[in-house]
Amino acid sequence: MGLERAAQLLRGGALVAFPTETVYGLGADARSGKAVAAIYAAKGRPSFNPLIVHLPDAAAAQDYVIWSEAAGRLACAFWPGPLSLVLPLRPGHGLSSLVTAGLPTVALRVPQSPVARRLLQAFGGPVAAPSANPSGRISPTTADHVVTGLGDRIAAILDGGPCTVGLESTIVGLDGAPRLLRAGGLAVEEIEACLGQRLETGHHTGITAPGQMLSHYAPNASLRLNATRAALGELLLGFGPMDCDINLSASGDLLEAAARLFDCLHTLDAMNKPIAVAPVPMRGLGLAINDRLRRAAAPR
Ligand code: TXA
Ligand code: MG
What we know:
By secondary structure, the protein is an alpha/beta fold. It has helices at residues 3-11, 33-43, 58-61, 69-78, 97-100, 114-123, 143-150, 188-195, 254-269, 286-297; strands spanning 16-18, 25-29, 52-54, 83-88, 105-109, 127-128, 156-157, 170-173, 179-182, 223-224, 235-238, 246-247, 275-277.
């Protein structure tokens, strides 16, 4: 599938799955309520939680939101990249209210993956895109994952190879004091260093923190966390030098572990056995890795 053809499909209101450096996204024209509604239908999402709008650059972002100094700093340092910013909508923004779920703010992101950037440039408009997986399942980090989960429900899938970051973007709310809304592919420490201040955490009023349905990232198999060894019948997902069935990173590299996390879960899940997971340290990307593991392990 060529990029021009994919952009044309988006213009016609169809759904196009595309690679980003975080996870594969299920894209639709963010100005079309009908196109955005089709995202929810394809994913089988039970509720209309707000979606991230993808743009080719920070200049385009300023067409939709009231920009701020903090936004400028973060965009300058980390866009394109695995960071989404939540900012107040600007009057006349033109986005479908289904994208924002009726909120006065919107989440924006400028992805880095070359295929995503070329698609956004060819399309020339805002693309709403959640992860391209059926609701409640593990996020896709390869085109194969997308085909398996949603293949029959979307118009096209662009293949850009495996995602290099492998975790959804970090989401920072800038509609008040800078706040961490979702840990993700950009380490909190880097964001705080750039802003010169700590991020607030915890829930604020209005919408609960993003992607927060507990079983959001769930595999079929049960998951036991912080395991030092596998019990009888369990598969062990390791971290660091150890004996295990699959290792997130034998050298204990958190970047490598993040990039491999969802793929390892997909692979283990296909083996239909309970999964034990070794401890992953809570620094850098370990925060987001542990967040996704907790969700995958949550009872449902
Ligand atoms: O890496 C990513 O962010 C991927 C790729 C495809 O870009 N996208 C992604 O989208 O993870 P999604 O829909 O799975 O997650 C978007 C999250 C939602 O959980 C939502 O709660 C939060 O962003 N969000 C969106 N708009 C928001 C807003 N105005 N205020 C607070 N949270 C918002
Ligand atoms: Mg998702």
